[in-house]
Amino acid sequence: DTEVTQTPKHLVMGMTNKKSLKCEQHMGHRAMYWYKQKAKKPPELMFVYSYEKLSINESVPSRFSPECPNSSLLNLHLHALQPEDSALYLCASSQGLTRGQETQYFGPGTRLLVL
Amino acid sequence: QQQVKQSPQSLIVQKGGISIINCAYENTAFDYFPWYQQFPGKGPALLIAIRPDVSEKKEGRFTISFNKSAKQFSLHIMDSQPGDSATYFCAASRVGQFYFGTGTSLTVIP
Questions:
Q1: Do B32 and A102 touch (CB under 8 A)?
Q2: Residue ranges with strand state E in A10-86
Q3: Do strands B86-94 and B33-38 pair parallel, antiparallel, or not at all (unpaired)?
Q4: Contact residues, chain A, for B29 at CB < 8 Å
Q5: What's the pLDDT score for residue A109?
Q6: How far apart (Å, rounded) are the C-alpha atoms in residues B75 and B64?
Q7: Of A10, A107, B41, B43, which cross-links A91 as Cys (Cβ 3.0–4.6 Å)?
């Protein structure tokens, strides 16, 4: 099973709402990633978790708050977002961060619209 | 600063032809160079990847050529098919930090 699942598929939220995105994998991977992808643009790395600890934060605004409750789950908590945060949010996982473990498997993404 | 530059932005190829997409990078610390294929509404999927100590890697119809001294790498799709029509991204990585190229929209016409 090489599947990464993401819920919800679509999300519409107002600027004062609080919502969460969820990502799950059962491949035994110990690294998980959040990316943001705007239309016709490449994915941009937001956060990387390794062994449930935050390893990389690419200077993401604090209105995005990641959480890795266990090795299979990754959440992204959203609060007070702006319309420019509307994008496809992609989750990925890999065996780890070291050489030979980098192959990433992406989920289908959550399409977020902030009104 | 764009860590990985990709060209062309779009590409139209006849069925059976060769599609070639080029990427260039600056940071010599990168040690893993994957190519991804993305269809509309889907997440990227890994096609093929290479390390800088290898000059070429082939998997089926997909070949990566890597020129370490020039800091360039390219994807060749042989015998291109309409089903290959998608957006292709190159990327460069080191220790979990992935930087993607700007993407190439490939259209293969029958």
A1: yes
A2: 10-13, 18-25, 31-37, 44-50, 53-57, 64-70, 73-79
A3: antiparallel
A4: none
A5: 97
A6: 5
A7: A107
